[in-house]
Amino acid sequence: MAKVTIFGAGNMGKAIDGVLSAGGAQVSHITSGDAGATIEGEVVVLAVPYTAFDDIVAKYSDQLAGKVVVDITNPLDFTTFKLLPAADSSAAAELAPKLPNSKVIKAFNTNFAATLATGRVGEDTTTVLVAGDDADAKEQLGALVTGGGLGYVDAGDLSQARQLEAVGALQLGLAVGGKIPWTGGFAIVK
Q1: How many CB atoms lie within 10 A of CB 145?
Q2: What is the pTM of this model?
Q3: Each residue of 152-167: pLDDT tens digit?
Q4: Is residue 77 packed enough to be buried (19+ CB in 10 Å), middle (13-18) or exposed (0-12)?
Q5: pLDDT tens, 65-114?
Q6: Which residue among 19, 62, 131, 176 sits deepest, i.e. has the most Cβ atoms within 10 Å of its Cβ?
Q7: Angle at which helices 11-22 and 135-147 pack, to 10 degrees?
Q8: Can you tell me the distance from the alpha carbon of 4 to that of 25, in angstroms, rounded to the nearest whole number?
């Protein structure tokens, strides 16, 4: 049984827990009040704001070595809904050099918590897009996602995280503006 540690217990953290647990993972959570917690999983999901990365790296970089680290953020200025990292970068690309002994991948940022929880985007199965440079890390997460009843698509190497963040930002802006429901969003139709 795969072990997964999720940083954060908000809507996304809980929805991802549901998917990965259904996929056969044993899931534990670390929240901001858990000072000095131990990471138990070989997969670690950062279901926290982008601004929390530096604190997590400072406190847990040794424990994150050798692990698959999943960045789910959409690093936005929430007043303008514009992406924060430089135009040729992404939150995941900024995180990777800070964790040189980890396998950083981008996933779940193009999904809403409701579509992860229900497994549906409208009439279609929710699909998780995953970008990263380590094929085994992507496949490991993909197996848990598909085991949990969702679709999985390898979206390419870590440089593609920037495009995933742009899709996530667009989708969030549409939902906040009332143009799409939080139970909707973008779907992959095969």
Answers
A1: 25
A2: 0.95
A3: 999 999 999 999 999 9
A4: exposed
A5: 999 999 999 998 878 878 887 778 899 999 999 999 999 999 999 999 99
A6: 131
A7: 80
A8: 6
Name the nearest CA neighbour of 2 among 42, 29, 39. 42
Alpha-carbon torsion (84, 9, 31, 135), positive or negative: negative
Given a cut of 80, whether residue 147 has pLDDT beyond it is yes
Q: Name the pairing type of β-strands 76-77 and 82-83.
A: antiparallel
What separation, in Å, do the N-terminal and C-terminal C-alpha atoms of the chain show? 30
Separation CA 35–CA 77 (nearest Å): 28
Quick check: is 186 in a domain? no
Q: Which domain holds residue 118?
A: 3-176
Q: What is the rounded CA–CA span in Å between residue 53 and residue 35?
A: 15
Tell whether 188 is covered by a domain: no
Q: Is 3 exposed, middle or buried (0-12, 13-18, 19+ CB in 10 A)?
A: middle
CATH of the domain at 139: 3.40.50.720
Give me the number of domains the chain comprises: 1
